Inverse folding.
């Protein structure tokens, strides 16, 4: 049960990563490699500021701004300098590696002693559970603080989800979606597509940086290598999420991305629990994504065979 | 309304693929005028339209819209005043977004895109009213993604969207070329209604001589990047398809004498 709560908590934290990847990858059709740099950037900024005594909420907000700047740079490189999107992302990601080392001053910062958002969340435990340290959940004894932390992160993630849903139905959000869907059309309707791309990438990487900041505060350290492989996890969450939903409208896709992140983390946790070798984690990730990609097609085929059988009868 | 001065544009200059698309085009279009542009393949018709729309910048020359010099304006800035319908029925609408959302974006042309909700509460009624005259039952499908519609339906919607906020200039780039004859006729009828309703200044490129004869009040025939013939008023009204065919023939006959040969002839005999 502790495993479940832990997986769900990380699932919700990384759902913000999934939402950020969803913006660049699905809305703009932009394969944004910056992700691996900006998630670490967010973590480094938050960690450095928190250990310097700053308010963790402010530190997380500054992480968001940092991510936005990184995304904007990628956008500018692509639109104003006409650099291929993939390359622009790689350039920024590579540069951020050095930037992160400067921000942290070293290759990693431990946060155990710091006043993080999670210390706040844990401090809320007495409000709900009084002085009990362990709570009975369906027969399992779970740490009360873990439960409170999970619900806090759940609310934060759902808040961001609703925020995105609202944003993409505004005039500017709709123009952004059109920029990714048919840039020629929206340009002929008077929208500056370059500005939309820059803003969209800024938003995407801002959210990813917040995910990084929260992850660092949760796991108790920020490490300059922590971004490695995060893009694949983000993509995996988005793709698994798409396999789960029925309709393709905005609200469903956003919910799908969040659910995909949760499901993905749960599957990984279960696989590890069953004794999978942690070295195989990347391979298992690839297999999960593969299944998620072919599943919708397979389901459609089985439905069609059922239909044709009925018609023959 | 539209003034084009001495427009030149060459693509791939200096290479084997060099195309002298526009070679000194001059045009003066009055407000409310409906011009059809005809021409042989490669005469520069679409290039002229794209130059006005801002898809590229000309090598030389100036373009004025409503007395404003728009030569240096980027495409999206010009789009605030210009409505466009493309040849490709899939170019004018966003396939994964609903009909309502596409129409909402058309209604926002020229306005700043802020944080207000795109589909405002009173919009849906207005959308229904504007879409009903099409007789395509689209008003019942406003929440459907546009990608499900046929080419003709999408082209009709693109036309409605281009003219939603009365544009100073409407550019139609062979917009029925990719449609079957019946749908093309419907779209042309819609085009006439839309233009007449708001007295829109229109520049329409077409391959169909029948369309050029039936519609509008002015015909331009282009050849080799220049305007070869210009018919207005009663001259234009008198034109029939056979007359246009004869003009095309005349151009082709002139072509058979190579430019260098005619120079030689001029030197010898003049």
């Amino acid at each position: 049960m502790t495993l479940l709560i832990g997986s769900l908590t990380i699932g919700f934290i990384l759902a913000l990563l999934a939402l950020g990847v969803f913006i660049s990858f699905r809305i703009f059709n932009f394969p944004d490699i910056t992700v691996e740099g900006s998630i670490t950037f967010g973590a480094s900024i938050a960690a450095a500021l928190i250990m310097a005594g700053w308010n963790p909420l402010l530190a997380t907000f500054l992480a968001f701004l940092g991510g936005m700047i990184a995304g904007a740079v990628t956008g500018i490189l692509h639109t104003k300098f006409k650099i291929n999107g993939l390359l622009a992302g790689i350039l920024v990601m590579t540069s951020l590696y050095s930037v992160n080392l400067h921000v942290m001053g070293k290759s990693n910062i431990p946060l155990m002693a710091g006043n993080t958002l999670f210390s706040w969340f844990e401090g809320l435990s007495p409000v709900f559970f009084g002085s009990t340290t362990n709570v009975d959940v369906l027969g399992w004894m779970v740490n009360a603080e873990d439960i409170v932390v999970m619900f806090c992160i759940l609310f934060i993630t759902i808040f961001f989800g609703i925020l995105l849903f609202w944003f993409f139905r505004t005039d500017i959000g709709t123009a952004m979606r059109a920029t990714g869907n048919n840039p020629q059309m929206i340009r002929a309707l008077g929208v500056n597509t370059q500005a939309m791309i820059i803003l969209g990438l800024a938003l995407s990487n801002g959210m990813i940086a917040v995910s990084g900041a929260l992850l660092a505060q949760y796991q108790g350290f920020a490490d300059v290598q922590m971004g490695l492989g995060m893009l694949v996890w983000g993509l995996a969450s988005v793709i698994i999420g798409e396999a789960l939903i029925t309709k393709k409208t905005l609200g469903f896709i956003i919910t799908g991305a969040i659910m995909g992140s949760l499901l993905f983390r749960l599957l990984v946790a279960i696989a590890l629990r069953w004794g999978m070798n942690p070295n195989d984690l990347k391979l298992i990730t690839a297999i999960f994504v593969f299944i998620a990609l072919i599943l919708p097609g397979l389901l459609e085929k089985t439905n069609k065979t059922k239909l044709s059988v009925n018609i023959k009868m | 309304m539209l003034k084009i001065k001495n427009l030149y544009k060459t693509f791939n200059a200096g290479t084997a693929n060099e195309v002298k698309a526009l070679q000194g085009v001059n045009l003066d279009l009055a407000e409310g005028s409906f011009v059809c542009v005809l021409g042989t393949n490669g005469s520069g018709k679409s290039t002229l339209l794209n130059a006005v729309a801002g898809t590229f910048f000309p090598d030389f020359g100036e373009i004025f819209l409503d007395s404003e010099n728009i030569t240096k304006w980027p495409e999206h800035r010009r789009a605030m005043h210009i409505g466009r319908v493309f040849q490709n029925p899939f170019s004018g609408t966003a396939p994964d977004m609903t009909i309502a959302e596409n129409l909402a974006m058309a209604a926002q042309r020229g306005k700043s895109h802020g944080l207000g909700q795109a589909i405002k509460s009173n919009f849906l009624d207005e959308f229904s009213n504007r879409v009903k005259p099409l007789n395509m039952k689209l008003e019942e499908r406003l929440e459907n993604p546009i990608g499900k519609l046929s080419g003709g339906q999408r082209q009709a919607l693109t036309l409605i969207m281009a003219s939603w906020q009365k544009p100073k200039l409407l550019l139609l780039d062979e917009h029925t070329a990719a449609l079957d004859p019946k749908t093309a006729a419907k779209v042309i009828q819609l085009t006439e209604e839309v233009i007449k309703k708001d007295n829109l200044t229109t520049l329409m490129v077409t391959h169909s001589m029948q369309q050029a004869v039936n519609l509008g009040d002015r015909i331009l025939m282009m050849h080799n990047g220049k305007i070869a013939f210009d018919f207005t008023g009663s001259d234009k009204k008198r034109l029939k398809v056979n007359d246009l065919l004869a003009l095309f023939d005349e151009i082709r006959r002139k072509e058979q004498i190579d430019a260098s040969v005619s120079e030689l002839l001029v030197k010898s005999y003049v």
